[in-house]
Amino acid sequence: MGPVRYRNKNAPTTIMSSTDAPNVASTWSGPLGPPLAIPAVADVVIIGGGIVGVSTLWFLAKAGIRAVLCEKGHIAGEQSGRNWGWVRVQGRDTREIPMMQESLRIWDALEDEIGEDVGFRRGGCYFTANSEKQLEEHAAWLETAEHYGIGTRLLSADELGQHISGSAANWAGALYTATDGRAEPQKAAPAIARAAARSGATVLTSCAVRGIETSGGKVSAVVTEHGRIKTAVVLCAAGAWTSLFCGSLGINVPQLRVRGTVARTAPANRLLNGNVFDDRLGIRRREDGGYSIAHGSILEHLVTPASFRHFVRFIPALKKEFRILRLSFGREFIDEWRTPRRWSLDEPSPFEKTRVLDPQPNKRVLKAIRRNLDSLFPPLANTPIVESWAGTIESSPDVVPIIDEIDTIPGFYVATGFSGHGFGIGPGAGKAIAGMLTGKGSGIDISPLRLSRFFDGSPIRLQSSI
Ligand SMILES: Cc1cc2nc3c(=O)[nH]c(=O)nc-3n(C[C@H](O)[C@H](O)[C@H](O)COP(=O)(O)OP(=O)(O)OC[C@H]3O[C@@H](n4cnc5c(N)ncnc54)[C@H](O)[C@@H]3O)c2cc1C
Question: What phi and psi values does residue 276 have, to the nearest 5 degrees?
C-alpha cells in the first residue's frame, strides 16, 4: 500500500453527526486550503472529484497506474454530495444497464474492500402508480428487466401496503426491484477518494485545472492553478463544468443544467426501507434514521446562453420532460454571459472563481415537498425537516453519459452527462473508464456512449428521464 497523499492542509476531517447540524452541507462548506505540493508528472490526470472521477482514480490506483485527481473545491462538493442517494437499475436506459449491474456488484463489496462505511443497503426501489393506467405504463419496463435478468416485478396495492406503512396514498401498485439500493452521498465519494489515496493515488483539492498543453497535437500536460503536471492522458470528469472546459479546447459537448431541491428529515419511525418514487414525492430511508425527500415532478432549468446554443439537440428531452421542467430566468443567465469561454492558462480561470457550485434550494419547492410528505405520510407530519439544499444536475441531450476519447486531441478523454442518475452508476462507470484509459477494457460496452452520437446524424432518443 502506498503513502496516503490526500493533501489539503485545511480540509475538514469530521462530518458533524448531530441530526440538525448541517451534516449534508459539511461536504461542501468546509474551509479550503491549497494542496501542500503537486506532483510534476503522472500517468493519468483526472479533472473532477465527483463519484465518477474518484471511482476512476480508485480503479487506476488498484491497477498500479500513477494517477492524480485535481478537484477545484471539495471532493463530492457538487452533484455527488447533494443527490438523493438512490442506487438503482430500475427504469434505466438500456445503454446504461450492464454498467449499472456491474456498479451494484461493486457497491456490494465496496465497504469490505475499502474498510469504510458508505451507507450502501439493498432496500429496493419502488415506482408507485396512482392509477391503473400508470401501473400499465410502469409495466412496460418489465420486458427490459427480463432481458437483462433483473428481478423487477409489479406489486399490487395490497402487496405494496406490506412493504410501506403509514401511507395515505391510494396507490394502484408499484414497479419494484428488490435488489436496488441506496448509499449515503456525503460518505461515498470521499471514502472512495481516501481508498484511492491509500492505494497510491494523489488527490488534490482546491486545485482547479485551467487547461491542457499539447505536443505534436497530443496531450502533454495539465495546467493547474498551482502549476503544471506532465501527463499523456487526461480525463475530464468535471460534471456541470465539462462543457465549458471542453469548449475552451474547441470541443463541443452539449450539456444543460437543471436545479434539484432536496431536504432531509430528523430521524423518525421506519415506514419504508427503500427508495419510493411517486409523482409528488421522492423519498428514501437514510442511514441516520431520517428520510431524504424531494419533489417527484419538479426540476428547474436555469436558462442561460447555453440553453440557446444547445437548444436543437435538447428538443427531445424538453418534449419528454415538459411536464416536470420549470424554466427559471435569473442571475445564472448573466453569470454565464459574463463567463469567458477562453482564458489564458497563467491567469485565474472560471473554475477558481466558482470553487463550489452551490445553488440555493427553491423555497416554493420546499413548501410543496413538506405538503406532499405530510399528505402522503401522515405519521411523518410532525417530523421536522432539519436541512435543505440544492444541486445542479448536468444532462446530455439523451440523458445518458458521454464516455469517450476525443479524436482531435489524442490522450484527452471525457466522462460526463450522467444526468440525474450518475451517483448509483458511478463505481461501474469508474471501472469502465479506467479500462478505457488503460486500453485494457473492462468488459462493459461503452461504445453507445460515444460523443459523436450527437453529431453524426444518429437519432437522439430518450428511454428514461433526467
Ligand atoms: C438533486 C440531485 C439528485 C440526484 N439524485 C440522484 C440519485 O438519487 N441517484 C443517482 O444515481 N444520481 C443522482 N443524481 C445525479 C448524480 O449526483 C450525478 O449524476 C453524479 O454525482 C455526477 O458525478 P460526476 O462525478 O460526474 O460530477 P460531480 O459530482 O458534479 O463532480 C464534478 C467535479 O468536478 C469539479 N471540477 C469541475 N471543473 C473542474 C476543474 N476545471 N478543475 C478541477 N475540478 C473541477 C467540480 O468541482 C465537481 O466537484 C442527482 C443529482 C442531484 C443534483
Answer: -120, 125
